[in-house]
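Table S2 (text version). Query chain:
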Amino acid sequence: MLSTASTISTMDPSCQDGGDTEASTPLHPQQAPSCWLFYSRPILAIGVGALLFGSGTALSLLYFTQTASVPYLLGPLLLSVGLMFLVTGLVWIPVLKQSQSQPWEGTAGGAPAALIGD
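Corresponding structure-token output:
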């Protein structure tokens, strides 16, 4: 880590003030961050939600057809939690796309000016 900070400070003459260059200067400023960085959490939420929803559906079918001994609330519980994760992940992706296309212009406190009630 120390060699990275010294390499960055020698490559960029504007960072010669002696400050913390490791955290403030990106290694490759011309490269845009990968889409995986933005969409990894929503994709994970969709995957977990689909897995829980599918297993909840299967356990509910096993319970209601009485082919296996399944606890009473396990199927509907997994079904509802899986649907919650699935919908949250599916809504999260358009919100991220909109936040990337329109940068947030809020006040110093982080709340939008329309909600403050000036």
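Notes on Table S2: The chain has a mean pLDDT of 77. The chain is about 65% helix and 0% strand.
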